[in-house]
Sequence to fold (391 residues):
Amino acid sequence: MLNIALFGPPGAGKGTQSRQLVDRFNLCYISTGDLLRKELKAESELGKKAKDIIASGNLVSDEIIVQILEKTIAENPNANGFLFDGFPRTTIQAYILEGLMNKLNSELDCLINLEVPEEESVKRLLHRGKTSGRSDDNEAVIRNRLKEYHDKTLPVLDFYAQKGVRFDVKGTGSIEEVQAEVARIAASQYTKKPVSIVVFGYPGSGRGSQAHALAEKFGLEFVATGKMLQEEMDAGTEIGKQVAELYESGELVPDEIVIPLIEQKIASSQQARGFIFKGFPRTLVQSYILDGLLMKHGCSISKILEIEVPMLQLMERLAKRSRTDSCMPYDTSTEKIVRRLRDHEEKTMPVIKKYEQQHGVKTIDGTGNFDQVFEACATEIQSLFQVGSLK
Fold:
């Protein structure tokens, strides 16, 4: 997820620059001005409250802004990121935005500040008033809006400067020149973010071998609960002995054992390009735990893949694997295999449905050979490393 706030005085060109950022980085565009005008046109209760305030050139109350923003964010659960145009305008709104980002298990990645002299802003807005028909584009209102900007909005720059995410861009160049610099800043922040990929699939779908190969190809840390637990068993630790007993009975390993191992892996790989998770999360509770773990370490989920294979083919694969050196403890009987498949159906499918609503899940046809499935998965992940494409 990439979240950007585009900043600058009225007439700085935020709307123009926003459009190219939205297109290039596949962001959900949130303009408080546009949203307010939409409410005005619909003559909603919020629109009626805001009408007199906008006409006088004053800022709309935070209560109204928050309601509109929350509504818009809720309507875009699959967004790959948000671009805020015209928000935050005060330090209070900056704290509000921090709270909104927290609800998304994310944060504002950068505030891009378009610098334009006051007289240039007035000149641009008066010209816009002649062509747009907007009643608030007259000189008296414009001057009042610029005063509001200097009195209340400029302190927001210091707020984000202290967080280290403020970037200044001279907004007096050509549209193309400003676009190039704005895009460069956004891209630099995007490529700094570690990616986090979750690979789902029923036992026998090939998710483990695919995830491991993908981790090697893209230089990601392979976070596999099965691998970590196997290492504990091989070392003969107390945790390993508990895990062996659970495997023998075909039961899932409890979170109290799994979570500390995963957090240790994430914490020890802070310089990694990203992570690819296999075998976790398996339950709804684990999905919330993963969101929290990633947020704690400055990450969020970037891509979710689900490798789909028909049930009969899964059974055939698992039965075949049980007769090889790759046999897992839970492959040793039909009863255990069926139990594992049922666990996935009952406990993990709800997780996938949750992520489908929140992030979107890319389904991969897992019926082909290894190379075919790998190519399909790799194509999805490659897009994460291509500037201007988050999907």
About this structure: DSSP finds 16 helices and ten strands in the chain.
